[in-house]
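Interim report, section 4.2 (structural modelling).
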Amino acid sequence: MPLDISPFQARRARLLATMQAAGGGVAIIPTAPERLRNRDTSYAYRFDSYFYYLTAFREPEAVLVLVAGDAPRSILFCRTKDMEREIWDGYRFGPDAAREAFGFDEARPIAELDEQLGLLLANQPAIFHSVGYEPEWDRRVADALNRVRAQARTGCHAPGQIRDVRSLIDEMRLVKDAAEIATMRRAADISAGAHRRAMRSARPGAFEYEVEAELIHEFRRHGSQAPAYTSIVASGPGACVLHYIENDRQMQDGELLLIDAGCELDGYASDITRSFPVNGRFSGPQKAVYELVLAAQAAAIAEIRPGASWNAGHDAATRVLTQGFIDLGLIKGSLDDAIESGSYRQFYMHRTGHWLGLDVHDAGEYKLAGEWRTLAAGNVLTVEPGAYIRPADGVPEAFWNIGIRIEDDALVTDTGCDIITIATPKSVADIEAVMAGR
Ligand code: GLY
Ligand code: MN
Ligand code: MN
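Predicted structure of the assembly:
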């Protein structure tokens, strides 16, 4: 299917309009550098999310420049055609084909960037730049600014302000457009299938990495370029280690397996966690904690609708979990006391979700002027309560090493939310049925 560039052009036009409304100026948005893994071998290349959001262009060594004003312009700086390099590294568009394919007003060789910035920044009121993220780009932008200042005697003036371009793009990225939602739904479907496959492949005696391999195979065979983040495949005690990524343990009968894994598709992340018994049948204590986390997730999901506070879901999940910890004898005191003192944090120590999009922990503020922001249609967020019960004095042994997180991805709709990861088995009955079919 040919790439539809119209959403990317529309985003450039919106950003240009926002810049113009803020007084005008020039935005400089570079993509990510290639990074060495060891000696002369690079990591698989991943473009910068901000750059990709506005361009759809996936090559390294590229910079988008947007010039706001009465005649707004988008200019791509990119690598030139190079037959020798293309024999070794593969096709590159070159400026002419890139301008045509991606709908820029102009495209130029990347080697011309510094010189062109000197011209483009003259007599502009502001530079919009990712201030403070990449020292090399801070220096390069300062150098460009100084080149314009050096021409003062010719009568031109240099931009008087450097403004953070990311904060403008963050607000745009928070509300997904139709193209983004379509991609995120496909990513979610692929990841849901991978979790179903993981449930079918887990068994006592197998190693965590065998299950991880099933996930990766399922991602790739559906066209996902990579996992959106390092998969967590954590059995037994590992399920209580929030960022466990070793994935090298042999799974034992009677243990739980927590899998936090999601694919990236065309730049967009999915993020799903499921926790299930390695042998396919929940024990009594495992089921009790699982049902509690599931109820907490349902309470959080019920709070997701336009106009609701970002934090309402976390508060709802925390109350359900805390009452459950009291009922299970894990903590003492009243619900309000336990919330007030934070004693529930022994078993639930993270927040209930985050924005999701091009980055797994996506761009966008959570508070505005000190207040939790409210949800809007088009936001995508995760809902991921959990309970992690490590061996400890005063904790009944029956619960030791039960680590459970249940994580889905929610799209805020006009009336509530749509769980786009719904195809991932979640109830005890559904999980046991999938695993019974192994
Ligand atoms: N997988 C990362 C997260 O759940 O936040
Ligand atoms: Mn998450
Ligand atoms: Mn996750």
